[in-house]
Design goal:
mainly alpha
């Protein structure tokens, strides 16, 4: 009979543990409620910033490549004649 009483005591303690967990969960739910993350920079603005940075880096790379490495004038980088000449050099067969 001692085995039955000890198993009944274990069952009681398990039930008590479950009740305590449920009480703790009910108490924590209202306090741990999150409304959502507030973003400092919205996603659409991040995309615009990334696209703008890509354009700036491409332009800066072309200017540095043409004027510093290629010994040309920086202003000539934005002329159409320069790009047609570069394309002709690349496509030359």
């Amino acid at each position: 009979m001692s085995a039955n009483t000890s198993s009944q005591e274990l069952i009681k303690t398990r039930e008590q543990l479950r009740e305590e967990r449920e009480e703790n969960n009910q108490q924590e739910k209202p306090s741990s409620k999150r409304l959502g993350r507030v973003r400092m920079i919205p996603i659409w603005l991040r995309l615009i910033i990334v696209i703008a940075l890509i354009c700036v880096s491409l332009t800066a790379g072309a200017v540095i490549g043409y004027s510093v490495i290629g010994n040309g004038k920086a202003g000539d980088t934005f002329k159409k004649n320069t790009w047609t000449h570069i394309i002709d050099l690349v496509d030359k067969e």
